[in-house]
Amino acid sequence: MGMDFSALTPAPEPPVPGPGVPVLDGPGSQTPQSLTRALSSLPEADRDAPALVVATSGSTGTPKRTLLTAGALRASGRATAETTDSDGAQWLLALPVHYVAGAQVIARSVLAGTTPVTTASLTPGTGFTAGDFLAAVERMTHPRRMTALVPTQLHVLLEAAESAVVPADQLHEALRSFRAILLGGAPASASLRARIRELGLPVVTTYGSAETAGGCVYDGRALPGIEVRIEPTTTEGGPTTEDGPDSHGPGSAPGTPVSAVPGLLDGSSPSAVDEDPAARPGRIWLGGPTVAAGYLADPARHAEHFRVDAHGTRWYRTDDLGTLEDTTSLAGSWPGTESGSPTGSGPRPGTGSRSASRPTDHSDAPRPEHLTGQRLRVAGRADDVIITGGIKVSARAVAAALEEVRGVREALVVGVPHPRWGQAVAGMVAVPGLSGTTPSAPTRKESARKDPSQTTPVTRSTSAGPAHPADAHKDAEARETAELEDRLRTAVRERLGPAAVPKRLEVVGALPLTSTGKPDRAAVARTFAAPRRPE
Q1: How does pLDDT run across 56-112, given as a tens digit for each residue?
Q2: Are residues 103 and 220 in the same domain?
Q3: Cα–Cα distance between 301 and 178 in angstroms, integer?
Q4: Do 36 and 155 share a domain, yes or no?
Q5: Domain check: are 90 and 196 in the same one?
Q6: Which of 97, 94, 152, 148 has its CA nearest to residue 126?
Q7: Where's the AMP-dependent synthetase/ligase domain (predicted)?
Q8: What is the DSSP track for 318-366?
Q9: Domain harbouring 61, CATH code
């Protein structure tokens, strides 16, 4: 199903909306109540009426103002209801409404004619907790219920149950009471995906952004009315030192090749990629009625990302790379089953309930017909490619390898300047409970070991032992961190090869987050740019 990307024309720039249109530009810019009033008054007949301006800097620090129309919000809400069989559902709001996923909970509630239940964590200065979540679930009155979370929140819930902060059975029952838990905003780590499968939670992984009115691809499949296309890439050049920072790369005009190194850019094996050129990741394009009107007062960026085809369909050129794989053979299963979903999360939204207070765990639902066909796999951001010694390495693939190590909650990988390699792979790894880290804030604790690219061996103490208990604790902590870093680097080397092994690692209790709960890439980059603390 090919597409001539050169035939797409720039979409008209959206006009600046009037003062009555809500602008989501940070905490406190809207309340659930004010946003409900604004969205309830949108004209039903005018699909192009301005509905929301989502002003974000994202996790990379580049500001943008995205205009969403009434038609885009309605199309998104109806597609979600159809896909999850949740028409008329009550929603639990656990995300801030200045974040598109939080705003969509309000929009979908308006469309469903129900009132959302909010968690106490939406109050400024109040953190998200499992107790808060359970209390909100208890206040829900509708047997058909939905919620949206980011991976960090689901981690918090499951870890609270595992550490007996809340009763595990009660929490698991509460999670299973939802038709679906939409999980997006950041990739789910390997450990989180494993727990989802083990517990049989009704999690649906979502992919999208403010530019597509939130998630428009669920468990790898496009929602009704949404189209996904991959802009082909090339792989000429290979892993040579000549293919460096000046080669074609992210941010180029549509159609410009982005070089890739099999096994490093997408984490797949070189042989598999060489045998199937379609397996090479390319730029992801999303088209359909949920696509935003565009960026306000930003003509260059608007022209780069928003296009229209000959049929009038709006298209958004993402900053992500991915592949489409044929899943026709999976047509008999819901996309959350082991064979058909990135999460393999087991039970899926179904029908029926026990009561308003104790709804059933939803399962055995038929798979919607539109979810057969192709599945999108996201390889990572186009600007996540780290060029180290002339070899292109996917930051997301490295993070995925780090997250496979036991005890790692999540990881975020960036490229940092390096005098020898141009860029070096640097990873921040969240390991709750490790000595020397805190569970609630990222506490920097970088190993004093030398860059592994150097040939000088690491010298470790061989003394009989420290003179004081405090020194013994410090030495034990250092050994624990060193052993973890060995496992982390070994995992990356075995999966992706030596070029992808992080030259710098930071172990923290939790990754720094944006105000919307997503890992803060810019903050991580600043951490690695700062001078190292003296040991």
Answers
A1: 765 556 779 999 999 999 999 999 999 999 999 999 999 999 989 999 999 999 999
A2: yes
A3: 39
A4: yes
A5: yes
A6: 94
A7: 42-296
A8: EEEEEEEEE-GGGTTS-TTSTTT-SS-------S--S-SSSPPPP--PP
A9: 3.40.50.12780
